[in-house]
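For reproducibility, we list the full input for the zinc ion complex.
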Amino acid sequence: MRAWLLVLGLAFLAGACAPRTLRPSIDPALTAKEAARQRVLAVQDEDEKLDRIEEVFGRIIVCNAGLCEKKKGYLGLTLFHPRFVDDKAWVQAYREVYGLNDDYLTVVRIAPKSPADLAGLQEGDLVLSINGQRPDTSSKQGLAEFLESYRAWTGQGPLSFRVLRGIEVAYATEEPRPACDCVALLVSSSQVNALADGQNIYVFQGLLRFCAKDEELALVLCHELAHNGMGHIKAQQGNRLIGAIFDGLVAGLLGVNTGGAFARAGGQMFSQEFEEEADYVGLYYMARAGYDIQNAPDLWRRMASENPESIGRSTTHPSTSRRFVALEATREEIFAKQGQGLALEPETKPDRDRSGAPRPGGAE
Ligand SMILES: [Zn+2]
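The corresponding predicted structure, in tokenized form, follows.
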């Protein structure tokens, strides 16, 4: 019976409509060559976007180190190796764009005016040693361990580099700058969005296209950094956990399956307030990084045109209209402080310190 149905189905499909034009035949070798070319173009485009993120975000994390609890040493240098590319189809494109070499870590990015830049290091330099230690490039594990040591050194003082740039050259950096311990990663998605996970932030490609000016990009990156700095992600996870415990209690005591409703509600508790707090603190971060905040609220008018439904109230985010007005008020607060020569620090409730933790002796 089944076999008959299959035969009948195939006969039916054979009679289905097919395209009727006679098109030029396609050489698979040309398609493969074009695929390689498109990968190179995509890596070049990604490189430009990462340059932009590095320049803006590097400035933000250095200028706000004083407000961040977790700090790192910032050198403004990015190292890369073919082993970091998991997808084999893409390795050649990365090799071509960055001039990668299997035997060395390659300097692929130097932030302008960073300690690495001031020391004279350049993109394309092949690393022979850092602080006298030669990177083990024979395995992913060896590379990971070396980068872990490098990360530790950036918190301990100036670094010495020996690199290959045709000839062997030695460089000594100045003291790495204290910075917020956060990395901005690029997500290949056309969505106009950014996220924070409590440690790092994720910038969607679509956001970079939307934010034509660096001031707009800085505003969004500062908002995400504020989520991490204010411990919002941890707090939401905690609220979700409390909700999940309640789900369990209801199921156990009343025999009712809540389907995780309390966990969901817990995760969304204060989410509007957290968003508003990230906007508020984020604008301070932006001003402290030396960006012009005069037109910062305008981002929410542009966002409103992009997503007209966000002009009204949603469950997780404040409306774009409310965010615009709140940002204007924050801007005026910052301008007043700048006018009086006061320190640019977000205002906190009297019984809380900047991280939101109760002050010693403060009322809970
Ligand atoms: Zn947010």
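Residues 14 and 20 are 14 Å apart (CA to CA). The pocket of zinc ion is lined by residues 223, 227, 275, 278 (CB under 6 Å). Both points were considered when choosing residues for closer inspection.
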